[in-house]
What we know:
InterPro entries: AB_hydrolase_fold (IPR029058), TEII (IPR012223), Thioesterase (IPR001031). This protein is α/β, with parallel strands linked by helices. The chain has helices at residues 23-35, 49-63, 92-101, 107-110, 113-132, 189-198, and strands at residues 43-47, 70-74, 146-151, 173-178.
Amino acid sequence: MELVAVQYPGRGDRFGEDLLDDVAEQAGHAVGELLRLPCSEHVLFGHSLGAMVAYETAVLLRDMGREPKKLCVSACMPPGHLENRDVHLAPDDEFWATLCALGGIDPGVAASPELRELMTPVLRSDLRAHATYQPGVTTKPLSCPVSVYHGIGDPVVDETRLTEWAAVTTGEFTMSTRPGAHFHVTTDVAGLVADVLDR
């Protein structure tokens, strides 16, 4: 078993490449990367915007006859119920204040004009993808198990609506809560990975 992260264009060692600001394009890219791996079975995990990408990736793989073994989504409303869609249009100071309020931005990064200038296009691209995402209205449900992870106190996710993720599959649906609000994935990473692989 191997843990692999998808590296999108415009990030990390692919920083010079054009950004993808469309969930469908990001999912298509993820599928291309996954198909290069020698393994034939995949467990997909996506956090926040990445949850939408993971879901669309699962749909694409299913349509190719390679449905993942399981789909795990975190800190994200169900498809068709996304909120806070205009953040990417906010002026820079408001934009950064909103992101910092979620707790996922290092204060040193937010306080550095150079780092803000470097990261703003990438973050706006991500949030533009979130804002423009629309799930396919005729998409058939998956059949693989779907697990939802919710951070207690997450200000951008309505916990009462998360059970609606069950509609994206005919398979088993589970949901669990963890401390840490929107960025709960940064606390007890080993425990989260173990839970994803054990369910």
